[in-house]
């Protein structure tokens, strides 16, 4: 392989020598160090410690015609930053050359001085002895009193890391160009103003001289001019010439060629002076500009002065400061931009590089970004996506609005097939009141609605249908709420039950038990179960069945989203829309259940493809009506909730949940032993999307650090951290209960890093609630901080919590207990190893982000792996598909036990997000798992 | 300058270089600081073109600018500083290497510069490091020769009592020419054959219906894994340009856009030379089915290299980064020492002087089999082919994979930074690191370490304490933890 002659000479039998330094004395200055870091302590961080300044800073210098190069200001303006670094010397070094080398002044053959609008020069240089390297941006400002009317300045970004400067050259250049443009624009305005003032002075001087000359003329009747008169005449001529020169300069500065703004927003307000503009009346279209211009042009307060004939250009004059050379607003903006640059490039190069690579890679992952990425970044990316979205729909993409907005992946697939089972289970929103069963419930609920009653109904309904070990998933989205709330009557979501569930229902009526929850604990120091966790509600269900049965014995309820026409959902959708080949790519199935894609108004399903195997039958609903009554918020609440933390009104007025709520009845469909029940409560219009800031994002570095630190503490302090994190990752709401708000908030913030997001808005995290929880809270929030209070209201909150405790995980901070399903996977231990040696919160946060990115990749693969979700017909085919999926999850993705559920949940969210009508506004899902919970204690 | 200095002349010596393709380079110059006259241009190299790109006057003007201000030069002993200019008024970019040296009896400041049009800025920036590294090394050699020449001249003057003005200081120019021309050729070849910033996955192996369709599964796994373990630096050789380029593009998928722009596809008909410093390069074998890989240049590459032969499906890799750097430095020092000892111009001809250095015996067996298996690439390849080809699904999945790698690399850097208080304490807990960051497979650790090395140079050496561990020693260290 290596056959070059230069290696032949090395073919020797000698051993690899240990000490090759016996060469003759080559001076070290002509050699290279054997170890790149040998001279600086041999570590990758030490090269930055050689400099005399503590961190990067920006220096503005000027080549003064009076004193030569001099530093003007630094950003940040803190002497601690540049320390003992010699700014004077460095200014001398960076300003010692006129890199622009353009002629300004009287060019040969020109009658008047000419202004050259020179372009900025950019230079990277360094002082290796001082360990200082700089990106230097040279620019020229205009000053009427300066030599040649120009003042050379430069802005330098000074760093101890040479590679940082070169690797970030283009970014630095772009940012400094913005600052430079801003400064120069302000300077041109100031210069023009200065010229106009000067012209007024000259005009006034001319008038005075003219008058004096006239007086002399009148006084002189000898017929010849006196020497004084001649002097005056010369002076007048000189002023006349000066006026012409200054008018020419003004014309030049106003005729500054309008260049491309190069994306500089800073100078967006700039309206350049144009040649055809009247000289005195500023007639710009921009009122602000006019005002600014007036400051210089039509300032009535300005009183013209008489200009002496002698030139003022001498060394005793005081040159204008940088601030005086520039319009104040622009100067302020420039400083702000420079501060922005300083912040932008602050820190170690490796973090800058990685964040840039991160951003570039995340841009390619719109499908999965929303799950765990920062909102601020997601928002940025959303903007970029909007800007860069192709105008023409790709051939590969279905003509769906949602998919058009979502550039990747471009899958040739019917949107219908991507419809999540959460949405797509053919659950009809039954607004009619004809249903007898509804009427019965309605009788108790109409009039003044009591959410508590409503919840009672929920439990009452459920208790008769849930068999041992079966699990129920109730997923809800806001769409249903909003639609329901539009109706004055109690809406209900009706889901047809499959015969299979009817069978199970028939044989598995459960005995209601007072102490219905069996508590198991793996913790050694198991203690008595607090009363809070005991199921005091009489209708609680005894769950003695093993969690292992949850896969096959689960009953999943899905309450569908709100189709405008219920009939369409169950009939038209099934027949009309043919599925495309890749319909199978997006699962459209719940665990173990039949795949039942959503019949959205725009998208229908093909029965022929076998995706919908069990079309909903209205008649069955009557027979097998199984009702879960949800207390739904009205539309006003829904919209209010979207304004802070995603839901600000809610935050501000937690008690609203108890007020003016419409009860809605939901008839649940049961397809098989494992059926999902999803309630879709989606906002019907895009304007209800969360629009304001939220406390969980944008995540600053500080926030990340704190969250990571607290999460690290949590996993080290609590041996049951794994099941708690599992709850969050699998979509089961975790309630953190505690008396002290600060503690609860802290832990909620810490745990929020594990909470998958619904969309590119706020995370479904409620940091602090003091009022009783409502079922809709579980629909919105996946992590809730709940106040434990001794007041009656607090008792109510605990009572409500105990009511829902079987569907949620509860972490009691005061008693150090956790009640949640068992977790036996391998994924969470990698994410949260209590014996980890990671020391810092920020490092742990990075580690979590990297593991979660791996998890997202698995969920993505599972979601879009086409052969896994091929359309199936018949129960055997369904079983085969389920088996194929299970096998894939276990063998290809290496998932074991409960890890499967995590990936399935994330895949579900991906599907929802991908098929959403309004990307980024995915509806929160309400999911209740009837799986046995265990009590963990420290 | 002293009396030994040749008198300045308005006519600057110029070498015109005929290039086969388009040259993005306008000119290269060698200038010096004259103590009386200031900056002076000594030599100009320019591509031979029909159209005059820059007049000699303009080149001289620009080259003079590169030394302006260098009277204030404050550099460490032996430093070769890099200055980079973007002069919009002139529409050019200039890269200057400034150094001090003894020439003809005087210590002065010199500048070797290359000039490109400003429109080539984004083309040039990814190649900046390659150009600078190569020019830096030739300056190191030239500087030694300048010094030696001064001594010889001085001896001759003393012995003969005459001055041989015409001979003095000339040798540096041929020496510089020996590297300036290859740099011009490199830039020219990159202009026509560089890998595009965005790669269509359809042009790669990852678009196959199934793994193993166009190349053997194990070979692909080895190639990608080793490619990542050697910091994304690979040489792909083969007899079919199409086949070579497909692998080149595939490997480039795992690079950043800037790194792709520093990679080169294989020429269809005749082969390029191997170029030190490129990330991935495709090279065509000759009619005899062999390709000459110059040992010296492979050693001078900033990162270790993976050698991939698509004809016989072999993958070989160089030792890890820290060991490669150590070997490279030793080689460089030996080469410079040999120059220092050389007695005649013939002795210092490139690639021959090293023969004289008997004290240095490099390990020729630098390419070894890929020993460390990884789980990251394996899992990726096992999974990516489950996704339907022809869509953007695989690109998204690839981006996710790369994101995970980068995040792991950053976490690793931060982990070490925390553990050692930014290098103040030695790093002793490699075992903990591997467990905590889920990098227990050695191949995984190598991949993440290689990635981390690129964004935090010197990390590898720092972790393993003594930077000159051989791979075997390193493995021992790893195993003992």
Automatic annotation (TrEMBL), chain A:
Q: Name one GO biological process term.
A: autophagy
User: What are the Polar residues biased-composition ranges?
Assistant: 276-285
| Top-level division of the source organism's lineage | Eukaryota
Region described as Disordered? 260-295, 385-404, 554-624, 679-708
A single cellular component GO annotation: cytoplasm
Name-wise, this protein is LOW QUALITY PROTEIN: guanine nucleotide exchange protein SMCR8
Identify its protein family.
Answer: Belongs to the SMCR8 family.
State the organism named in the record: Camelus ferus (Wild bactrian camel)
Q: Where is the composition biased (Basic and acidic residues)?
A: 394-404
Q: Which UniProt keywords apply?
A: Autophagy, Cytoplasm, Guanine-nucleotide releasing factor
Annotated InterPro entries = FLCN/SMCR8_DENN, Folliculin/SMCR8_longin
The molecular function terms of the Gene Ontology recorded here are:
GTPase activator activity; guanyl-nucleotide exchange factor activity
Plastid in keyword set: no
Main localisation: cytoplasm
Could you tell me which residue ranges the UDENN FLCN/SMCR8-type domain spans? 48-911
From TrEMBL, chain B:
Taken from the record, one Pfam family name reads: C9orf72-like
**What is a GO molecular function of this protein?**
GTPase activator activity
GO biological process annotations for this chain's record? autophagosome-lysosome fusion; axon extension; endocytosis; late endosome to lysosome transport; positive regulation of macroautophagy; regulation of actin filament organization; regulation of autophagosome assembly; regulation of protein localization
Its domain of life reads: Eukaryota
InterPro entries noted in UniProt = C9orf72
* One GO location term (cellular component): endosome
Looking up PANTHER family in the UniProt record yields:
GUANINE NUCLEOTIDE EXCHANGE C9ORF72, GUANINE NUCLEOTIDE EXCHANGE FACTOR C9ORF72
According to UniProt, the name of this protein is: Guanine nucleotide exchange C9orf72
Q: Which organism is it from?
A: Camelus dromedarius
